[in-house]
Request: fold
Amino acid sequence: MTDECPRIEALSMYLDAQLDAAACARLDAHLATCVRCRALLDDLFGLRTDLRALADERLGFDLSQVIRGRIAALPARAPERRTPRRWPWLPAGVGAAASLTLGLTMGLSMTAPVAAVAPVAATLEVFAPIAPGGLCVGMPACWRTDAWTGARSR
Ligand SMILES: [Zn+2]
Reply:
């Protein structure tokens, strides 16, 4: 077969005499020169002959009526009754509670002063008028101790 060879559909249409006269003439000219297309056309002709030779099998009765009769003979089933769910809102409630808890936990962990503020407060003591470890010249009541960091400030 070459690129100019017809597709098998065209050969099948040729075999079934469904091509117009011009296409049929072009295909006749091609088949006269192309051995492969001629062999393929012979195979298609043999296949058609074999299919036509198959016996025409018939049931002898209407199968659909038999099936309908069997379906009608089945006992009627009661419609399936669905029991109402006891806690229909439970999955949504559990999800909402989990989301709220997670959101609060994440939000509080981001704003908690424990870990984030302590190094900053300790660093700022360097700039205090009294150096860390220095003697206090004022009253202890003037100083406030941070409950989280232990840092003292005025
Ligand atoms: Zn060909």
In short: The longest helix spans residues 90-111. Residues 8-53 form one domain. The CA atoms of residues 7 and 29 lie 15 Å apart. The chain is about 55% helix and 5% strand.
